[in-house]
Design brief:
The chain has 616 residues and is of the alpha/beta class. The chain binds fructose -6-phosphate.
């Protein structure tokens, strides 16, 4: 393959360039209140949501009873808004689904009269039918989007709704009930000077401040203004006015008392803090995260252990990286506590949950708490009487609210699309829980401290350099294989995922013993293979696998406490007992990171990926 050149990165020196890919997740930010800088406030809010990826953006404000719009394709970057001062504004970053990447298709979209500006996350699955009906009734469409149908629907409902202080939200609720699919919608009305929003599926959070009401799709964008938040639940709507906010049930149309939560995260935690990108920042935060869990989470581990003991059967469930954490958990619970629990991917659990019922415990693992595959299967399991526990990083997320028992990981905002610190946080929690099951939690705390120290050592300059040099040797390769046994088997899956999703090098993880059952056919002279060889009962067998690869010319990159003649390259990771699996996760994170930089990819925004996958 040919690698483009000339991009410079602080971690690589002058080097290569390439594609910066987009991520399918739209952002919403809105404000109404006494401040007159709504255009800048909204623009700034959208910048905070940039990490999710988008291909166009837009802002609407009110001026002299008219909507003023600014819509552009491409990145916000250092863009300044040319909109006039206003006390109300609504903005959106769009990742195109219906209709190409054009100014016209960027949100907000207007109704026929230009009174309403609408933005939307999600997909209106019955939009073709709605658009046909609305066109037949005389509405003019200016874009190809499904979103614009909502603008015309709200326009019709507004005309039917009696005047009153909550007219806008009532009209939105009536329109929202006609939509199929999972959607979050917000509308700005220049006549009332109000904002309204409604959601099913996609997250929406309200922010309470002294000088106005805020709305965002991701609450980290609100942190600069407030830590007092209301997380809208499924099928809830909200009215935002300069005098306050009200929350409604979409099904009944009745108001409900909003739950206001003071979230723990601080605004600074969501910034780069001197790192060149969020991926390297979050990799470097892992020692702190692991130590915090050792220090603070023993009571959570105890109560999760109690729930496991009381359950007739326990299922650990997650998607992607969180699934790999759950699978490591299965090994840790067996090894440390002699307890056999099941594992399932979130998207597969639904096919099993119908066999569950009262007495069963499902432990959902999710960084975002918004992954639809997890949420759907957990809702179904809960409806059958299964008890639901969750290891989740985002306070107030849908999973956080759904679970009967929640362990908040406390890893802080994870803004790189790649899950890193949330993964090691899950492993640390599972290690504590495994030890809590056998009353040895003090031992686990000490192990976590040693794991944190070992991760610090791995992040020292010379070891990062070592991994960067290995990346330089292999970045033109098409394939990378990773093998591990026992708890290192799910870690091999995770290592391969880290490498492939950020560098686009094809990487596959295998249980060490499986290689000879077929995959070994792919090993050619020079094929790089990462061999996870900790000092445990898997060591001798995994080294036999390494020898088989070497005999066929494979290049062995050993991750183990000691060097071995079989290794072409050695990444030392000290033996920290059962916590070795936590430290062992870091080399592949760094390898993926350097491979991405060398191949000219943006480490924070891999192509085609969303930070939280809210579609099936
Ligand atoms: C990989 C990655 C994904 C997520 C998966 C689940 O780096 O980030 O595989 O782990 O989409 O997301 P959460 O944990 O938010 O449910």
């Amino acid at each position: 393959m040919s690698i483009p050149t000339s991009r410079s990165h602080p971690d690589l020196g002058p080097r290569r360039t390439g594609l910066v890919a987009s991520v399918p997740m739209c952002g919403i930010f809105g404000y109404v209140g006494s401040r007159q800088d709504a255009p800048w406030l909204v623009l700034d809010g959208l910048k905070k949501l940039e990490y999710r990826g988008y291909d166009s953006w837009g802002i609407a404000v009110k001026q002299c009873d008219q909507v003023q719009l600014e819509k552009r394709i491409g990145k916000i970057g250092d863009a300044q808004t040319t909109l006039p001062p206003s006390g109300i504004g609504l903005g959106h970053t769009r990742w195109a689904t219906h209709g190409g990447v054009t100014d016209e298709n960027a949100h907000p979209h207007l109704d026929c009269a230009g009174r309403l500006a609408i933005i939307h996350n999600g997909i209106v699955s019955n939009f073709a039918e709605l658009r046909r009906t609305l066109s037949d009734r005389g509405h003019t469409f200016r874009s190809e989007t499904d979103t614009e149908t909502i603008a015309h629907l709200v326009e019709e409902e507004l005309a039917r709704t009696e005047d009153g202080p909550d007219r806008l939200v009532c009209a939105l609720i009536d329109a929202f009930r006609q939509l199929e699919g999972l959607n979050a919608v917000a509308v700005l009305d220049v006549t009332s000077g109000h904002l309204a929003a409604a959601k099913s599926g996609s997250p929406l959070t309200l922010g309470w401040t002294d000088d106005g009401a805020l709305l965002a799709s991701d609450y980290s964008a609100l942190l600069e203004h407030t830590r007092k938040m209301t997380f809208l639940d499924e099928n809830q709507a909200a009215l935002l006015t300069p005098n306050g906010m009200r929350v409604y049930d979409v099904q009944t149309g009745q108001t409900i008392v909003p739950v206001i939560t003071e979230v723990a995260w601080q605004a600074e935690a969501a910034n780069l803090g001197g790192f060149p990108d969020f991926l390297s920042k979050e990799i470097h935060e892992q020692p702190t995260v692991v130590r915090q869990i050792a220090r603070d989470k023993a009571p959570d581990a105890d109560s999760l252990a109690r729930a496991i003991v009381q359950a007739r059967e326990t299922h650990l469930v997650g998607c992607g990286t969180a699934a790999h954490a759950a699978l490591v958990g299965q090994y840790l619970l067996a090894r440390v506590a002699g307890l056999r629990v099941s594992f399932a991917n979130g998207s597969e659990f639904g096919y099993l949950e119908r066999f569950l019922g009262p007495g069963a415990l499902a432990v959902a693992h999710s960084q975002s708490g918004e992954t639809i595959d997890i949420l759907e299967s957990m809702r179904a399991a809960k409806a059958r009487g299964t008890t639901l526990a969750a290891l989740v990083n985002v306070e107030g997320s849908s999973l956080y609210r759904l679970a009967d028992q929640t362990v908040l990981l406390g890893a802080g905002p994870e803004r790189s699309v790649l899950a890193t610190k949330s993964f090691t946080a899950m492993l640390a929690m599972l290690l504590l829980t495994a030890h809590a099951l056998v009353d040895r939690i003090g031992e686990a705390t000490a192990l976590l401290e040693r794991a944190a120290t070992e991760i610090e050592a791995l992040l020292a300059d010379w070891r990062r350099d070592l991994i960067r040099q290995i990346a330089e040797r292999i970045y033109c390769q098409e394939h990378l294989f990773v093998i591990g046994r026992g708890p290192s088997y799910p870690l091999a899956l995770e290592a391969a995922l880290k490498v492939k999703e950020v560098s686009y090098v094809h990487a596959e993880g295998f249980a060490g013993g499986e290689l000879k059952h077929g995959v070994i056919a792919l090993i050619e002279p020079g094929t790089p293979c990462l061999v996870l060889a900790p000092n445990d009962e898997t060591h001798a067998d995994i080294m036999s696998g390494a020898m088989e690869i070497k005999a066929r010319g494979g290049m062995i990159i050993g991750v183990s406490p000691e060097p071995d003649p079989a290794f072409d390259h050695h990444i030392p990771v000290a033996d920290v007992g059962e916590a070795t699996v936590i430290a062992q996760a870091v080399p592949a994170q760094l390898l993926g990171y350097y491979l991405a930089l060398l191949r000219g990819h943006d480490p924070d925004k891999p192509r085609n990926l969303a930070k939280s996958v809210t579609v099936k």
